[in-house]
What we know:
The complex is a heterodimer of chains A (493) and B (156). Chain A has 493 residues and is of the alpha/beta class. Chain A folds into 2 domains: 5-182, Cytidine Deaminase, domain 2; 202-477, Rossmann fold (3-Layer(aba) Sandwich), CATH 3.40.50. Helices cover 28% and strands 24% of the residues of chain A. A 9-stranded mixed beta sheet of chain A has the order 9-8-7-6-2-3-1-10-11. An 8-stranded mixed beta sheet of chain A has the order 14-13-12-15-16-17-18-19, with helices on both faces. In chain A, strands 4-5 form a two-stranded antiparallel sheet. In chain A, helix 6 (225-237) runs parallel beside helix 7, helix 6 (225-237) crosses helix 12 and helix 9 (316-329) packs across helix 10 (373-380). The termini of chain A are far apart. Chain B is an alpha+beta fold and 156 residues long. Chain B has 4 helices and 6 strands; from the N terminus they run H-E-E-E-E-E-H-E-H-H. Chain B has a 6-stranded antiparallel beta sheet with strand order 1-2-3-4-6-5. In chain B, a hairpin with a 6-residue loop joins strand 1 (31-33) and strand 2. At the A-B interface, helix 9, helix 10 and helix 11 of A face helix 1 and strand 2 of B.
Amino acid sequence: MAREVDDIVLSSTLWSELRSHLLSANTKAGHPGGNEQMAFILAAPNVSASRIRLVGHELLRAHPPDLDHQSPSAISPNGQFVATALTRCRREGWSLIEVHSHPFDSASHTTFSGIDWSNDRMKMPRLASMLPEPFYHATMVVGQNSLDAHYYQRAASAIRPVKQVTIVGGFSDDSPVLHHFPASSSAAASVLTQDARHSRQLPLLGVATQEALSKARVAVVGLGGLGSFVALELAYLGVGHLILIDPDRIELSNLNRLIGAGPDDVGRYKVDVFRDLIERLAPGVAVTAVAAPLLDNEALHHAKAADVLLGCVDTHGARLSLNHLSIRYLIPLIDAGTGARLGTDGLDAKLGGQVQVVAPGVGCLECRGFIHPQRAAYDLAPPEMQEYERDHGYGTEEARPSVMFLNGVVASMQVAETARTFTATSASKDVTPKLVIYDANARRAFPAAVSYSPECATCGTHGVTGLADLAPLQAAFQVAPTARPAFARASLS
Amino acid sequence: MPSITNDLETRRRLSRLKTEALLLSRRFGDARFDTESGTWFYIERFPIASGWNKAHIEVLIDIPYGTPGYPSVPPEWFWTDHDLRTNEGQSLNHFFTRGPSTDREHLDHGWGHFCVHLIGWRPAGGADLLRGHSLITYLDLIAAIFRDQRTLSGAR
Lengths: 493, 156
């Protein structure tokens, strides 16, 4: 059976601009909603084994000169506007999401009109024949209070509903980073089953959050001191599907902090040990275990299918890769780290950590200065280059001190932020701060201000937001560079 | 092992390198780059301060080409003339006559490998390459270290 496009994912910035264009435009006398408006979204697919998501990259607004017809109940673009968008799809590989408004519709179930359906039935197969796979074509209609979306499935030659539209990022510093709008044609009634296992936390989290957690797919990247706590806590919390990613086997020196692991586990892959543990402790949780680094193809394939990424890694290369995965695929990243600096001259050791949220519009680990560029460069270099650098005294680093109680506190903070991410609605006041610092010496945690830079090369206006499968992550060692010609020294040869 | 494909990431890197080459060619004349995969960047006549046995050197910068790669990952290594010496005959610190095994071709052609980091790398966004770090600032760093030949040559 062919996989379905179940989600259209947009950054909050793109969504704000789209909504503003569609619904805040001119108001005609007698038509309080004004004319219909339309826009195209250039999107990139995120295709994984379990799902297909269309990730928005760029908004192309249709203005009056781009239209053949516009009224309060109809709209059609002119040939030039359509041709420009389709040319970019063909040349650059984008998929296309057509969006128009029904400004007159303030119901909770806005859906496509008969004319919309008729148009889509006519043009969707035609476009599919013009633009080869992996081109996807979806249309979306936005009313005042709800929306609907569907797409053309080539395999079935049929128009299928899209389940939801997901908005990722913050509209402001204190707004939620994940918000789902169910598509009217797919909206299913919530089915709450009796859940004795989680009955004691339901009054705290609420039914909606518990249900959201049970449907969530969360990737935990790194199963060290932090990740082991995080994976187990998420399983206890009731997350539906956990994707565990870590290439390492358990060593004796890990046993001071890998909660749940014992001497018999030494030599086993961490992901296997924690998969087994979770299957015993919380058998209702589906677990995918990938014993590979994040930039391995299989690991990426599973990670990009997640609703939320949890960063529990201890290298700057892995952290930078997670940062890019988050921004490129529009998947919120909740990253955590701990640090310990040994005391000198009789002073106490300094212990602490931080938990932070990465998403478009709220900043990323790079523009916040949480990536050490040289260490990231070493971590991401091909193995022979790493060996070469080590031979010359670069890239060597002693094992850092780590202690369980510090990991436990920071991991629990990270899990709490994860739960809040699934709790938050636009009306919620309990929103996720974008950065929380834990000072273990002072025994306190506090939110810290973060700034978003539109000039950031990664999450900024001209960054990599929404490139998804059109610019997939890959390790330098996975590709063979083209030979560098000896052009410069031609005179020497 | 697959080769670097002409994917969007490569096209983005090539577009950036093209802009940087245009800006740098105004200062240094011929500036070229790997137009297929964006894995290197080359200045044929890079002027260096006095005190060396040459007034100009060739500079070939290794561009990090994974994803994430340049500009999130900073350039750190470049190749330059193997026979570069101070006027007193000393060679360079951080300069290696044995490159990684994959780069034999450069050594055979009289290049040496040189490592220098730009501390606090914050890459410029695509809109304005002069606001933030880029190959322009990296080459400024290279120019600066060649002005400090005593440190560079290991002299005390």
